[in-house]
Amino acid sequence: MNELFLKSWKALAWRGAVSLVFGVLAALWPGITLMWLIVMFAAYALIGGTISIVSALQNRTGNSDWWLLLLLGVVGLAAGVMAIMGPALTAVMLVLVIGATAFGTGILDIAMAIRLRRVIRGEQYLILNGIVSVMFGLAIFFFPGAGALALVWLISGYAVVSGVLLLMLAWRARSWKNSGMPGPFPSGDLSHGRS
Predict the structure, then answer these.
(1) pLDDT number for residue 51
(2) pLDDT digit string (tens) for 99-122?
(3) Cβ proximity of 51 and 18 under 8 Å
(4) Which of 20, 51, 81, 122 sits at 20 to 30 Å (Cα–Cα) from 36?
(5) Comparing 8-12, 36-40, 72-76, 190-194, which segment has the lowest mean pLDDT?
(6) Could you give all domains of the chain from N- to C-terminal order, each with its CATH number?
(7) CA distances in angstroms from 159 to 34, 153, 179, 187, listed in the order given
(8) With 0-12 CB in 10 A as exposed, 13-18 as middle and 19+ as buried, what is 7?
(9) Average pLDDT, rounded, for the chain
(10) What share of residues in the chain are helix, strand, coil (percent, to 5)?
(11) Cβ neighbourhood burial of 176 (10 Å; 0-12, 13-18, 19+)
């Protein structure tokens, strides 16, 4: 998993950048119509999902955990396709799709971080992103009928926070790779991973 993580820092950076751009655009245009919100979300989900799938497939040989990244990509693609195929979704249905996507990706981010915690430092960014995603997804499920403007701000805030956390994690993973170390291990040796 650590090799996949090191090789995938660009995918993390792209996921973070796409999330950040989506969040900023939603914040800049809070009065956008529901159709534009659907288009922006579909683009966000499709791009993020594609990046995760490509990264997983590029790193599938010699890595037993590549499927977690693949699953993350499939969740994103499915959400994007649902948004495109059903543009006449009601506001509540769209919000539930966004909430389900956030919840699913949050669980997968936490699972990846748990698998990495014994061999790296800095996995807390991935765990924190997963927790933020799960909490956002649950908030959406419990309050799906909140006002449209409040939902746009909530979605925007979530996307910005998630994007920043993923970019911080990508920066950290990139520095590990560029340091010439065989992996992001505290002692430089896998056998001395944290417990």
Answers:
(1) 86
(2) 888 898 899 888 888 877 776 666
(3) yes
(4) 51
(5) 190-194
(6) 2-180 (1.25.40)
(7) 17, 10, 30, 34
(8) middle
(9) 76
(10) 75, 0, 25
(11) buried
Residues contacting residue 104 through CB under 8 Å, at least 6 positions apart: 75, 137
C-alpha distances in Å from residue 108, one per residue of 76, 79, 103, 178:
12, 15, 9, 26
Residue with tokens 């997968």: 108
Which tokens sit at 78?
């499915």
Residue in the block written with tokens 């910005």: 160
Question: Backbone dihedral region of 62: left (phi > 0), alpha (psi from -120 to 50 degrees) or beta?
Answer: left
Q: Which residue has the tokens 């992001």?
A: 184
Asked if residues 59 and 52 have their Cβ atoms less than 8 Å apart, the reply is: no
